[in-house]
Amino acid sequence: MYNYDYDLFVIGAGSGGVRAARMSASYGARVGIAEERYLGGTCVNVGCVPKKLLVYASHVSEEIHNAKGFGWDIDHISYDWSKLIKNKNTEIQRLNGIYKNLLENTGVDIINGRATIIDAHTVEIGTMKYSAEKILIATGGWPSVPDIPGKKYIISSNEAFFLESLPKKIIIVGGGYIAVEFAGIFNGLGVETTLIHRGSLFLRGFDQDLRSMLAEEMQKKEIKIIFNVNVKKIDKTDKQLVAYFEDGTQLEADQIMYATGRKPMTENLGLENVGIEINKKNAIKINDDYQTNIPSIYAIGDVTDRINLTPVALAEGMALAKRFFANEKKIVNYSDIPTCVFSQPSLGTVGLTEEQARKKYVDIDIYKSRFTPMKYSLSDNNEKTMMKMIVEKKTNRVIGVHMIGPDAGEIIQGIGIAMKAGASKQDFDSTIGIHPTAAEEFVSMREPTI
Length: 450
Prior knowledge:
Layout: E1 6-11, H1 15-26, E2 31-35, H2 41-46, H3 48-67, H4 81-105, E3 109-112, E4 115-119, E5 122-125, E6 128-137, E7 141-143, H5 157-160, E8 169-173, H6 177-188, E9 192-197, H7 208-220, E10 224-227, E11 231-236, E12 241-245, E13 250-253, E14 255-258, E15 262-264, H8 271-274, E16 297-299, H9 310-325, E17 339-341, E18 347-351, H10 354-360, E19 364-371, E20 385-392, E21 397-404, H11 408-420, H12 425-429
Parallel strand pairs: 1-2, 1-6, 2-3, 6-16, 8-9, 8-14, 9-10
Antiparallel strand pairs: 4-5, 5-6, 7-15, 11-12, 12-13, 17-18, 18-21, 19-20, 20-21
Helix pairs in contact: 1-9, 3-4, 3-6
């Protein structure tokens, strides 16, 4: 029997890696974890958490505007971006400390530095080598910026969290959730915002009704959206940056941010030293047990480029820890995973889109409701909310629920539980609503619209 330094060595202290490490240690395993940047990974430092804080900040301007309808007379409003960033950084540092304590209190050894895999059971960090019975790669993803002329002038979402000052005008290039969320953030903070996407509509993979309505609502908020264009190059003048498009047009801005996707962080990990297989997107290939083609090496989270959500990485980390050291074969169920886009208005979804449902089932019913949220009834805010439910006729089972409007994520989380439990349309209909709320609409939609 080999005498390894650790039972498990984790590369990457993001959400998935930390969960796997500390849960494994709680089961009595000897665990080491390496991190070259910051504890908590993307989500805590340059992702979900700081982004949500910025979303909250950007909502305040609209809330102040809406307050007039409720009798508030608010004048002399000022805003300090540097104070927001300072307070955000303080909160992130607090969370970094919490992650450090979580690991240390369960006996995990934290090693700062870049880990490279030397062989099937050994990693190297600086001048030190550590052996382990099992190695787990949980290095996550990183913003991907295309290699175009003027690339040096582009910022990604990473840099957006640390801007010294707010630009007056910004161009955001991309069609995913990061692009639409930052468009709402900058617009809400008073920045003249233009969103550029090479496709005909953003948020590919989401329900078509929600995608179309979000585009409408964002433009109501004076976010300029240009579809079906591609940036050819970026140049810099004395005062501004200029984006040149392939159709011959151009647009000036103080800042240009790309949110055109993220790539798995597999470079410089030493994967080639042991022959770990990756796909054409540089994501690590794994089987249903999160195992690579090297039996002692595993991978979870965004580095595998499957379902790139923090709660999914957490679930995978927990499943591995239980399997390795608690003799429990826990399987992560990837069906009906609720998710939210913190756009403005926000978008929440769980289950199948209408397009997916029509391909999978012979007969479905669509229930849909569109209305003005009560919170806007006394203001001139003309933002609409839409709720949509998809039901399989044969079984009466709810197979998809989608929403766009205030608190969409909070509402859809509860709907997700109901769907996991196999709720039918009759279950929704027989549930008494909470009045007056927007959420009660989900138990009040009686007649299918299609």
